[in-house]
User: What shape does this take?
Amino acid sequence: MELSDTGRALFQSLLEQVSPALAPDDTLYKFVAAVAIATVALLVYIVVRLLVKFYAERLIKRTTNGWDDALLEHGFFTRLVHLAPALTIFILTPVLMEEDGWLHGLLLKTSLLYMMYTALLTIFALLSTLEDMYNASYLANRASITGFIQVGKLMFSIIVLLLSISIIIERNPLIILSGLTALAAVLLLIFRDTILGFVAGIQIAANRMFKNGDWIQLTKYEVDGEIQEIGLTNVKVQNWDMTISTLPTYSLTNEAVKNWRGMEESGGRRIKRAIYIDIHSIKLCDNAMLERFGKIRYLSEYIDKKLNELRAYHKDYNIDETDLLNSRRLTNIGTFRTYLQNYLSKHPKVNQSLTYMVRQLPPNELGLPLELYCFSVEKSWTHYETVQAEIFDHVLAMLDTFDLRAYQRDSHVVLSNASEKPTIRVPANPQ
Assistant: This one.
């Protein structure tokens, strides 16, 4: 109290040099005192800001630590500077003004609000720095904390908001909080997405379901791309056409989502594609065909083995090999399937430790599907497509070697019977 009286007396003596009639309870005195407080606060802010800029920032840039650079980038120090003018107003107001004045209360409330919101923005900068440091660590590959950081910011914002209201209306914040319980249903409706996103964020982090950089597909929202950010209420995904999709966070746990992380962490990316063989081109192999097939590197051992098995079978059952009705013979489609199986087993871009096979699918109106199933060691999109194209280029080119044809639906192609080759019907009046 003595300091306040001394301060007011000193300030009043200074004002008497200009206007001797001014008293502490005069409106003009209060106005001049308020201007003086604001001026001193501004000068304090400028001085502290310059000190931080020319000394603290330079010192931070010289260090090798990453956390202080992150603090500087998020404006931690520039926000912290605002505490100096807020404290100046808070300290000088009781010194220069009487407590019963309305301007005294206004300035004190303003300084308290100023300090609280400065502290809130400083905490935001700390949390953002924590998020950056976490994302730069190996732990970010396991789970994202963006949602939890946003929850922390939301909680601090609610606390500051309640304290601000209590300061303005001069009531206990617990009384305000108890009054909000009556609006619980409305609050639940307003913060529905926030609550659902927070619960989903806990599930995602606890089960390590998704993280930034994961390639996901979500058919319902037509999403196909990499996760950029998992927030409290929204998830940002950059699609492969470079568009950005934003979807609710809880959709990652409530909807069917395909995550390609398993493929990226495994030894290969799956190739699963079939070609349709014209059924009319499938036939038994004669001696000339077998002799020709036996010269193929991937088939020579197979042909010798199968011929020996067939000779032993015919001998055991006394079957003449020229008897087409009772003898066993190789087919061009079966031999081609074995060729492709051996081809995949020697391909340098096919992962041999994962499943690879060539299989027949049920025939349909398009022919006999012959499916290649394997895993490419190249997992990036462009390299994967190149490997897949090279494999099927070779498959299609080798069909003629085995007297096979791929089915291709052409409206102008007519087969008169199964034994004839396709003929082309020319239009009557070609243009």
Summary: The beta strands are 215-218, 223-230, 234-239, 244-248, 258-259, 269-277, 357-360, 368-376, 413-414, 423-424.
